[in-house]
Amino acid sequence: MRREIPIAITFIVGTVFIIAYFIPHYPFNQFENWFNDWFAIVAAFAIWLGALNLLKISAIKIFLKKTDQLHAALIIISFLVMIFYGFYNGFSGIMANPPYSYRDPAPGINFSWLYDYVYSSLSATMFALLAFFVASASYRAFRARNFEATLLLVAGFLVMLGRVPVGDLITQWLPRDYQLSQLANWIMNILNTAGQRAIMIGIALGLVSTSLRIILGLERAYLGGD
Amino acid sequence: MRTREIIAFFALIALILLAKYVLPHPMQFSPTLSLIIIILLSLTFIIIGVLTLQGKFVERRIVFIYVGAALTLPFFMQIELEVPISPEVQSAYDQIESLNPGSKILAAFDYDPPSAPELQPMADAFMKYCFHKGIKVIIMGLWPQGPQQAGQSVEAAFEDDPALRDKIRYGVDYVNLGFQSGNEFVILRMGESFKAMFPADIYGTPYDSIPILRNVKNYSNIDYCMNFSAGKPGTQEWVQGAVDRFGLKLSAGNTAVQAPMIYPYLQAGQLDGLMGGMAGAAEFEKLTGYKDKATTFIKSQSFAHIVVIVFIIIGNMAFLRGKTERKVK
Predict the structure, then answer these.
(1) Domain check: are A110 and A140 in the same one?
(2) Is the pLDDT of residue B2 over 80?
(3) How much is the average pLDDT of B266-295?
(4) Domain check: are B165 and B255 in the same one?
(5) For residue A201, is it within any domain?
């Protein structure tokens, strides 16, 4: 039964979604709405599951005194502080008159302060480091080894320069249609779109076949085990 | 090694303190000084190129320093760069421009702080434009942090024009419905009923008692949709779930990494317009007339792109040199 019930659920839900797409009328639309609501509820629980799992893994690291136990402790402390202020500001906000939200970017809301001045800054900093690593990696690895790589390199140069104002500044002596921004637009709209479309159609066909296999119970890897 | 790092750390702090308390505010280099800095940096590139040809390769810390300089120095340079408008950003702007005052626009904020440097400027310009034009904005998010980012955009609009604080009323001119879990299933369910997914706004106010949401049952009661997206769920899901199925009219603002994947939807007419990355944001700011962060940041991005290209060329010079040496041997 541990395998049959999930397979039955998958078959019923998958079939209903397919039928409801082509026949969006009663009773299929009603079933689809129910399943959508259920998915939202399950997804909400999944968020908690993920958060609790993170706490569990971090706590285990501390108890086992692993090398990154300090980081684990920091994760737990940050998690608890954010969740405390989220609930505190959330409840006091709803009770206040007029009500306020813990998401409001207003002074006195601790959650928002932590979000704006700690979380946002740290996240943006981590992401910004990418600029340095991309530059370094490009310098070391982006080589014109063969014809294809050279083509990629030239297209990369044109798009990189064409997507920023300095591209047109360099080529302002050329007719408008041949300036770098126009070349970049052409590459993005014609060459890139053709490539992306081919990839998307390939992915879509793969998805359709995999979905059908899952719905029909032929593909059972998602259930775990064999 | 540790001592060097500590010295670098304190030097950075000293630099920040110097910038905050000693240097004039706002610190701006004159156009002549800016030009001199650019020429000097260009000359150092030539020196690096010559050294590379001699077999002395630069280490990656030098690359980091140049990227850092390219990103920070333009903030202080009085250089105006003309931002060319791409057809996809023009189209996004035209669609919003064609809306009448009182029209309702659904703004889906599907991103988080790491993507905010790219997406927040376009979201800010969008919010300012809508508020000034009298377009009513219904905010929601498929990412937990999205509604909070939207709150920052609303605040940015109010800070830009304090008169808006009195003019724009929450619940009447805009509403923040908050986050709902469920990814693309939320989009599908909203095609039937907004209320089913958002029974209350972020303040806990019931859906039916919010004036802006009266007569808003599903997408058919929305005039337009703008999606700011940094991944999944995002623009692709909105196109597949809401545009194709329910006929929603949509434009999107995407990170530069994600934008190339969205172009097929644009050409197929499933998407009206697209703002890609910082460049798209700068173009949108120019079109709306609310020039702000993106217009400044695009200068840094321009310089950073040039630095990356120059280093790729230098790297290839080293590669060709090695190739020639191997052939000779």
Answers:
(1) no
(2) no
(3) 95
(4) yes
(5) yes
The pTM is what?
0.91
Do A109 and A9 belong together in one domain? yes
What's the mean per-residue pLDDT of chain B? 93
Do A127 and A164 fall into the same domain?
no
User: Does some domain include residue A199?
Assistant: yes
pLDDT tens, position by position, A85-140: 999 998 888 888 888 888 888 777 899 999 999 999 999 889 888 889 999 999 88
Same domain, B181 and B286: yes
Alpha carbon of B222 to those of A52, A141, B147, B190, B226: distances in Å? 38, 48, 19, 11, 11
Residue A226 lies in a domain: no
Domain shared by A110 and A149, yes or no: no
Q: What residues in B contact A105, CB-CB < 8 Å? A: 148, 151-152, 154-155
Q: Which domain holds residue B67?
A: 3-79+295-328
Q: What angle is formed at CA B249 by the lines to CA B248 and CA B250, rounded to 5 degrees? A: 110
- Consecutive H or E run containing B55: none
Strand partners, B140: B108
Taking only residues 54 to 83 of chain B, the set having a beta carbon closer than 8 angstroms to any beta carbon of chain A reads 60, 63-64, 66-68, 71, 81-83
Residue where a domain terminates, one of A107, A131, A155: A131
Domain around A179: 136-221
Q: Is the minimum CB–CB distance between A95 and chain B shorter than 8 Å?
A: no
Task: For residue B140, give both structure tokens.
Answer: 């929601």
Rounded CA separation A136/A134 (Å): 5
What is the pairing mode between strands B250-254 and B224-229?
Answer: parallel
What φ, ψ does residue B104 adopt, rounded to 5°? -105, 130
A226: which 2 tokens? 């064999």
Q: For position A101, what pLDDT does the model report?
A: 85
Does pLDDT of B103 surpass 90? Answer: yes
* Total beta-carbon pairs less than 8 A apart between chain A and chain B: 178
Query: What secondary structure letter does DSSP report for B326?
Result: H
Distance CA A39, CA B186 (A): 9
Chain B 5-44, CB below 8 Å of chain A: which residues?
none
